[in-house]
Design brief:
- The structure is a single chain.
- It is built from 6 helices and 35 strands.
- It has a 5-stranded mixed β-sheet with strand order 26-35-34-29-30, with no helix packed on it. Strands 2-3-4-5 form a 4-stranded antiparallel β-sheet, with no helix packed on it. Strands 6-7-8-9 form a 4-stranded antiparallel β-sheet, with no helix packed on it.
- Strand 2 and strand 3 form a beta hairpin.
- Helix 4 packs antiparallel against helix 6.
- The radius of gyration is 34 Å and the shape is elongated.
Length: 649
């Protein structure tokens, strides 16, 4: 898990999520915000609000950020007791969009209300489904009255309609009842008495109607308000005629009461449960639970949602925090057979090559800032305890070429590697001499220094199918991985292919120039060592003079490839002109900045840079063949070892 990302605008390319990435969708400080599954621009909100205590429903439009108030019964009742009002709406009254008809929306007071015309009109489709105990609907607050709906008893607190069968609707109340209709509300059945071991007066906080079987549902019941803090979680497979307690593995404590249960949308029998202090997972339909905590704080887990397309588990805590467990595909694919195997490479979810988009402004010291997941493809694998040896991972393109190698952990259990969708970067420049006019800049312990301001090129993988190859214990495990174009991008896959061709050319040119610089640097370093080795005597003067002349000729070429005066201290780039390698990196960064094919000007600059690179490469080749050969001949005459010209680091 991690801090929740921006609800409406989290950056898909990684990085922080500013508070300004969020915006209100109307409603009040509590209740639900539910997007229309067929039109995500429309968001239904149920909440308490100014001047009322419940029953407020708003329909918000993302396109214009405006909302319509379609309150179910717009009568001012703030300060009234539950016994006095026409409809008992709790602050957190449920609102449910039918999984079969997005125009059909349900809400709960002591009744179930329904609209089919975007809230223009509401009708009641149930009797009072609560105990309606008037003794529990009186004045609240002791010395100071506080009758604002939060404490209303006798309300429908949970609603669910079967995704498998329209008209099968479940209702749970905050006075301990569970009711069901199988005909869209014409007839309701109280099935509470069929639930074994359930004390009275609990809050049915959540009902999960199974997407796999119309007769199956799961419930959580919270009894901590009547000082029973045990977990009460049940399952039925026969429309509520019989129920089974499913709490095995949840430790009993002061904070073990359950809030929310969810069924995985991909794997039948995979369940998630939130309690007052932890998250749990079950792989066997509630038969056994085990913690799913990781770095998640032990906070009350009040609500759970699963994003079915990206396979992300989303959690809301009572502390108004949002947490996301990115990519639960390994949990969805885990089997007992896998646990017994030496290693398993899970089938990865599709990876989108999202492009950067302008983000909302935010303060660097904002304590509410969230965190996005790493950019790229999530790759998961399981290693059985006792495995020996390193683990290696490679990304192979459709042509069988390895385009990236990744560091992989050999720890037992489920491991995750993020591939940033980049190919292997171009080779690194290793400078083995000091900057010109700055001898105080030293080399590292290995005898080289990095080039200041270096811009290596690493191609963003074009859309297509790749192969992930995990090597562990002498065995290879492979899975296909789809890389998909950013659906928000206006560029086409054809544009990307043209761009990739030019980027491949730039990468090749960059590598050839890096090789040239590294070879020149190796020669220059050897010449410096040679001058020191032959000594200052007059007999060695011809060698020292020849070394200086050769070094000057090497610098004449190298200084066109890389700016030799840069030190990495301060603004070198505004003091000294850029040379070829910097220009190649700059152009590559610009060409790959979006999904469009290169412009005419970008192609023209590419052609010029490529021609310059070929020219300097030819100059270096001639220099190595003639000048270096002549210098080596001089050394042989004086019994000095030759300068080595082909030891590219």
């Amino acid at each position: 898990g991690r801090g929740g990302r921006g609800g409406a605008g989290g950056a898909p390319s990684g990085g922080p999520i500013a508070r300004s990435a969020w915006h209100s969708v109307t409603g009040g400080e509590s209740g639900f915000a539910t997007p229309d599954p067929e039109d995500p621009n429309i968001i239904w909100s149920s909440a308490s609000g100014s001047g009322s205590v419940g029953g407020i429903v708003t329909v918000f439009d993302e396109r214009n950020h405006q909302a319509r108030d379609v309150e179910i019964w717009p009568e001012l009742v703030s300060g009234a007791t539950a016994a006095e009002v026409k409809y008992r709406f709790n602050w957190e009254f449920p609102i449910l969009i039918s999984p079969h008809d997005h125009n059909k929306v349900y809400a709960g007071s002591q009744y179930v209300h329904m609209t089919t015309d975007q809230g223009q009109s509401w009708k009641i489709i149930s009797p009072d489904l609560t105990r309606n105990d008037k003794s529990r609907e009186q004045f609240s607050g002791g010395l100071t009255g506080d009758n604002i709906g939060v404490e209303y008893a006798g309300v429908v607190f949970a609603l669910a309609e079967s995704p498998k069968q329209a008209g099968v609707i479940w209702a749970g109340t905050n006075d301990g009842l569970v009711q069901i209709t199988r005909d869209g509300g014409k007839n309701w059945t109280n099935v509470t008495g069929n639930i074994p071991g359930l004390p009275e007066w609990g809050t049915v906080s959540n009902i999960e109607a199974s997407r796999y079987d119309a007769a199956t549902a799961y419930i959580t019941v919270d009894l901590h308000q009547v000082d029973n803090r045990d977990p009460f979680v049940y399952k039925t497979t026969d429309y509520g005629k019989t129920w089974t307690s499913i709490v095995n593995g949840i430790p009993h404590s002061m904070l073990s009461y359950a809030h929310c249960i969810r069924e995985d949308p991909v794997r039948q029998g995979l369940l998630f449960l939130g309690t007052e202090n932890a998250m749990y997972v079950s792989f066997d339909d509630g038969g056994h639970w085990q913690p799913l905590q990781s770095n998640l704080p032990h906070a009350p887990a009040y609500w759970i949602a699963i994003q079915p397309h990206f396979h992300d588990l989303v959690l809301a805590t009572y502390g108004r925090g949002f947490w996301i467990m990115d990519d639960i595909t390994p949990l969805e694919q885990m089997t007992a057979q896998m646990l017994e195997s030496d290693a398993t490479l899970f089938a990865p979810r599709d990876a989108y090559r999202f492009r950067n988009a302008t983000q909302s402004e935010g303060m660097q010291n904002d304590p509410t800032v969230g965190q996005n997941p790493p950019y790229g493809a999530s790759i998961n694998y399981f290693l059985k305890p006792g495995q020996r040896g390193p683990a290696r991972m490679a990304i192979v393109d459709a042509g069988g070429r390895t385009v990236r190698t990744l560091t992989a952990s050999a720890q037992p259990g489920i491991n995750r590697v993020w591939w940033d969708l980049r190919f292997e970067p171009t080779r690194q420049i290793r400078l083995r001499t000091e900057p010109l006019y700055a001898p105080e800049v030293t080399l590292n312990a290995q005898g080289w220094r990095a080039a200041p301001g270096e811009r290596p090129i690493s191609l963003l993988a074009p859309p297509g199918t790749y192969t992930v190859k995990l090597t562990v214990g002498g065995k290879d495990y492979t899975q296909p991985l789809k890389v998909l174009k950013d659906p928000h991008s206006n560029g086409t896959e054809g544009d990307i292919q043209i761009q990739t061709k030019l980027m491949t050319s730039l990468s090749g040119t960059m590598n050839s120039m890096v090789d040239a610089v590294n070879q020149i640097e190796s020669l220059r370093a050897q010449l410096l060592e040679l001058k020191s080795a032959v000594g200052p005597d007059e007999a060695s003067a011809p060698v020292r003079t020849a070394a200086d002349q050769l070094s000057a000729k090497l610098i004449d070429i190298e200084d066109n490839l890389i700016q030799l005066k840069t030190t990495g201290r301060g603004q070198d780039d505004v003091r000294f002109p850029p040379e070829l390698i910097s220009k190649i990196g700059y152009l590559a960064n610009e060409v790959e900045g979006s999904d469009y094919q290169p412009t005419t000007q970008q192609v023209a600059v590419h052609d010029e840079l490529k021609e310059q690179a070929a020219t300097y490469q030819q100059h270096l080749k001639l220099l190595l063949e003639r000048e270096v050969a002549g210098f080596n001949s001089l050394l042989r005459q004086r019994n000095v070892p030759n300068v080595i010209t082909n030891n590219l680091p």
